[in-house]
Amino acid sequence: MGVIERVFHSVLFEVLAISLSIIGLATFTDHDIGALSETMIVIATIAMIWNYCFNYVFDKIVTGEKTQRSISLRIVHVILFEAGLLCVTVPVMAYILGVSIWQAFVMDLGVTIFITIYAFIFNLVYDHARVFFLKSQKVAI
């Protein structure tokens, strides 16, 4: 995956993640949409940077065809990614929303559980759609 595709992958992932996270947080908390939007945009910016860096390193360590990655490897990938991100985003969420670290942790944990499931599904679909798209481009040429 080249730089442009990595950026595309990260932006697509985050746009969908932000939208779905704001809806979820608005449903389960009493914070207004504006504050939640600001929080999720800041967190998504942090996550995009982390996404690029983490996946770059992960792909260097775990080589081979991505579509051949086992379910257990995909689970390890998501857990490592989200754990690293959680360490940074809890204090950010607490600061922006004006809540305690504990409240931010609980909120961020809810988002993290959702995003973990979302990331698993998103990356599985993306990897297979990418292969399909690349194969169809070769046939069209």
TrEMBL record:
InterPro entries in the record: BTP_bacteria, PACE
Key words of the record: Membrane, Transmembrane, Transmembrane helix
Name of protein: PACE efflux transporter
Organism: Vibrio sinensis
Sequence intervals crossing the membrane: 7-28, 40-58, 79-98, 104-126
Membrane as UniProt keyword: yes
Domain Chlorhexidine efflux transporter, first and last residues per copy: 2-62, 69-130
Signal peptide (residue range): none
